[in-house]
């Protein structure tokens, strides 16, 4: 397995739809180019921000293929931007199925949310990731997001998975707990695996996490401001926290307003106001409320994005 190191500024991109609900692959190409021009280090496609739960198999493959095609032909980057596909499921067989589709579509790595609803034990989680790794032999990022799965994965279990499943190279930590993230970082720095990275799953915690040893963020706000967010992360990774803080506070209002309603409703609203995509979501997500759209528009105007 090519053990790619995923780090830095990594947008979890939205999936653009046309007004009739069909995929808008031209808008997707436009969005991917915007991210690469902004200096991102990798791209996550078909994650929760990408409304993956509403994509059928053919659409899932199409969005990954589209992103892969754009990054392969992009002329201004010496190194191709890796593509990470969301492939998670609460059924291990389905997770393997999606992973195989992602690999066939050209993905470089996989993002696997920890199984929701079933509430597996630590042993079950380890076996879940072992089975995926055995079937695919690809780099895997664990996605711990208790707010969506209903259960938190402890630092001890995260580290255990990293040690027993070498294909697992990072965790996207969206527990909201810096203490939990510090536990993971401290343990792997002391006792390994030393090439296991902790990435923030919350934009507002990306800078604090990097300051304690995190390696970047899988981000929502990067959809709208890839250049500013990438610069912030790169300043922080270089230890220039003065400049990183300036950018953090500059885009913090946008980070906040992106969650005034369920993600990705606000970020899709913002991208539509910016002229990058059409404002279209799939049920059960609906268009943003008028009062919240005013808030999104105000923040975009303050940042001179519209």
From TrEMBL:
Assigned keywords, A-Z: Amino-acid biosynthesis, Cytoplasm, Diaminopimelate biosynthesis, Lyase, Lysine biosynthesis, Schiff base
Positions annotated to bind pyruvate: 49, 218
Please indicate which residues carry the site annotation Part of a proton relay during catalysis: 48, 117
**Reactions catalysed according to its record:** L-aspartate 4-semialdehyde + pyruvate = (2S,4S)-4-hydroxy-2,3,4,5-tetrahydrodipicolinate + H2O + H(+)
Would the keyword Membrane be found if you checked this record's keyword annotation?
Answer: no
Q: Which CDD domains match?
A: DHDPS
The pathway entry for this protein reads as: Amino-acid biosynthesis; L-lysine biosynthesis via DAP pathway; (S)-tetrahydrodipicolinate from L-aspartate: step 3/4
Cell membrane as UniProt keyword: no
What GO molecular functions are on record for this protein? 4-hydroxy-tetrahydrodipicolinate synthase activity
Gene Ontology cellular-component annotations = cytosol
Taxonomic superkingdom: Bacteria
Q: Where in the cell is it found?
A: Cytoplasm
Q: Name one Pfam family in it.
A: DHDPS
Under Enzyme Commission nomenclature, its number is 4.3.3.7
Q: What GO terms describe the biological role, i.e. biological process, of this protein?
A: diaminopimelate biosynthetic process; lysine biosynthetic process via diaminopimelate
Major subcellular site: cytoplasm
Cite the active-site annotation. Answer: 143, 172
Q: Which HAMAP family match?
A: DapA
Q: How does it assemble?
A: Homotetramer; dimer of dimers.
Query: What NCBIfam families has UniProt attached to this entry?
Result: dapA (TIGR00674)
State the family named in the UniProt similarity comment for this chain. Belongs to the DapA family.
Q: What does this protein do?
A: Catalyzes the condensation of (S)-aspartate-beta-semialdehyde [(S)-ASA] and pyruvate to 4-hydroxy-tetrahydrodipicolinate (HTPA).
Official protein name in the record: 4-hydroxy-tetrahydrodipicolinate synthase
